[in-house]
Amino acid sequence: SYRVFCLLGDGESAEGAVWEAMSFASFYKLDNLVAIFDVNRLGQSQPTALQHKMDVYRQRAEAFGYSYSLVSRLLTLLSRFKSSCHECVEDNDGFHGKALGDKAEPAIAHLEKLIKGPVYYHNPRPVIEDAPLLKQTEVKLSEPPNYTLGQKLPIRNAYGTALAKLGTSCDRVVALDGDMKNSTFSITFMNAHPDRFIECFIAEQNMVGVAVGCATRGRAIPFVSTFAAFLCRASDQIRMAAVSQSSVNFVGSHVGCSIGKSMAIGRNRSCPWFPDCTYNSVLALRLGPTCADVCNSNSVVRQSEDDHVLVIAAGVTLDEAMKAANHLELEGIHVRILDPFTVKPIDKAGIVANAKAANGKVVVVEDHYYEG
Prior knowledge:
Subunit structure: Homodimer.
Radius of gyration: 26 Å
CATH superfamily of the largest domain: Thiamin diphosphate (ThDP)-binding fold, Pyr/PP domains
Domain Transketolase-like pyrimidine-binding: 153-346
Number of strands: 14
Distance between the termini: 50 Å
Order of helices and strands: EHEHEEHHEHHEHEHHEEEHEEHEHE
Shape: elongated
Cofactor: Mg(2+); Mn(2+); Ca(2+); Co(2+)
CATH architecture of the largest domain: 3-Layer(aba) Sandwich
Number of domains: 3
Family: Belongs to the transketolase family.
Largest sheet: 6 strands, mixed
GO molecular function, one term: transketolase activity
């Protein structure tokens, strides 16, 4: 029942994410979306690439299947001059983000003159609340994990199965993927709940934007899945989602330089999870949408009364650390291993306590190239 209006600057339209969004809207025939391009010709430091070439904007819009108007229902192109409040600054470079100084008073007087006259009231139809607020207690697995001790399978497989179970118990869970669903195993969710799976294709910036839109008004719990490296392309959109306090869940598979079996699960405005096994992957998925209190905790997975060194490892490196500890044990070197599980915030007190118990020696094993 809602209509979405997106106000875009002409300088902003140089961003590829804008055209990703227009392509997505065209493909899915979103007739409740209105894009408004404010074409004022000037950017921050110089004129924009297209300036007032309204025919080019029109042709691009039509290429994506949009109808339009100059001042359409689906796309509006506004042609105007920037800073059109006073003749001294109108359509001139050098006034972006700057105070008008001695030109302020005449500019204000000019604007006040423009807003005098008849007042027009628009009476939109009442909003229909067809998506009531979600109760977090509804988010749970439809059935517990049924894996057997010693069973081996990719963590991403467990993720897909658990995500589908969340979708079974809660019809507000929505899954998005960027054409990686057969690798991230979000395809399991798609097969179980095809009406709540959104294929965003290889356009990660737009995928994040779509997920943020799904999460607005507390009407859906979106899970965004793709390779972790590809989520980096959408870092700007993820940052802005955090500023907006969005509750999108991001799941990046194939993290690190090992292209290992681990997955990083992060909840915006909360903490990133780094599960090391099938069980912890399901646990992170279950807790991610509803709980931030379990952040800042770790698990000591190996210890003795006479440890010589503390090794901190997560995900795929935890398994390698356990193998190394077994070898070192044969040489009389006792290794304590700590799995942080959540990496931001980190459990400082737990790390310090375990480091002191291991002679103050700490080795951190991470799955990436060294830098910094």
